[in-house]
Design goal:
334 residues; alpha/beta; 2 domains; eight-stranded parallel beta barrel; 13% strand; globular; binds flavin mononucleotide
Amino acid sequence: MSTFQTNSIKNIHKLSVAPMMDCTDKHFRMLMRKISSEVLLYTEMIVAKSLVYTDNKKKFLDFNNEEHPISIQFGGDNPEILKEAAKMAQDWGYDEINFNVGCPSPRVSSGNFGASLMKDPLTVAKCIESLKNSCSLPVTIKHRIGVDDDDSFKNLNNFVRYISNAGADRFTVHARKAILKGLNPKQNRTIPPLRYDVVKKLKKLNPELLIEINGGFTHIDESLKALNDFDGVMIGRSVYKHPLRWSEIDQKVYGINKKTNSASTIIFSLIPYIEKHLTNGGKSWDICKHLINLVEGIPKAKIWRNQISNKSIKKELDIEYLLNLTSKLEKMGY
Ligand SMILES: Cc1cc2nc3c(=O)[nH]c(=O)nc-3n(C[C@H](O)[C@H](O)[C@H](O)COP(=O)(O)O)c2cc1C
C-alpha cells in the first residue's frame, strides 16, 4: 500500500526523484515505477504561462496512472497565471504542486523566475499563496541555499520562514548556491560547493518545517543516513544515469518488498507500454533513450546501446527487435 496521503501535508516523502528537464518525462517516470512503487516522482519544470496559454494542455499535463505519487513542477512569477495552472494540475489528477525557485538558467532568470526569485521573497510568497488558495493539493518549493552574494544563512532562514507563513508545505533545498552571472546551469550543479551543513542548521532551527535535502547523493545508503538529519532526500543525476543502482529504495526506505533489479525484467514489463506508444504514432527513441542507462556494467553494454540507439534514431526499431535484444540480456542473467 502506498504511504502517500493525497491532500494531506503529512505526506512526508522520504525519497524523491528530482525534476530534470529532458530526463524525467512520463516515459522515464514509468521506468522508475518499475524500480520503486513508492519514491515521489516529479515532472520536468513546466512554465506555468506556457500551460495556461496553450490549446494543447495534454502535451504538458499528460501522465500515466501508474506514476502516482507525482508532483508537477511549475516555473513562473505571476500569481494569477500560477492560480490557473494549479487548478489545471489538480483537475488533471496530480498529487502535489512544486514551485521552482532553484533553476539558474539564464533563459529562466531573464523571465524573472527560477533561482533569481530567491532575491524576491515577496513575489515567491504571493505565488505560493496563490497556488495554495486555488487548489487543495500540497504546495512545495524547491530552492537553493542562496543566490550570488545573497547567500547569508540569515537570509536563507528568513526566506524559508517567510515562505512557510505563505503556506509552503515542504522545502526541497538544493544544498549549493546559484551563481547567476558567470556560470551556466551545468556548472551551477557542480562548481558552487555542496553545503549540507547549512541545510542541517536550517532544519535544526526550524524543526517544525519539512525539509528535504538535494544535491550530490549517489547511493542509497548515504541517502538513508541523510534521513537522520532531514525529512527527505531528493536524488537527480544519479537516478537518471544509474537507475538500477536505486533498486533497493522500496525495501530500504519504505520497508516493503524490493522490486526488480533486472534490466530485462524491466524492459519486458514496459513492452505493452512501448507498443501502445508506437501504435499511437510515438517515436521509439522517446522511450528507448531512457532504457540505455539500464545496461550499465553489463558486458558488451556499448554494443547493446548502439544497436538500440541506431535502430531508434533511424526509426527502424520495432517491438520484435527490442524483444530479441532484451532476451539476450535475460540469457546473460541481466
Ligand atoms: C538535466 C537536468 C535538468 C534539470 N532540470 C531541472 C528542472 O526542470 N527543475 C528543477 O527544479 N531542477 C532541475 N534540475 C536540477 C535537479 O533537480 C537537481 O536539483 C540537481 O541535479 C542536483 O541534484 P543531484 O546532484 O542529485 O543531481 C536539473 C538537473 C539536470 C541534471
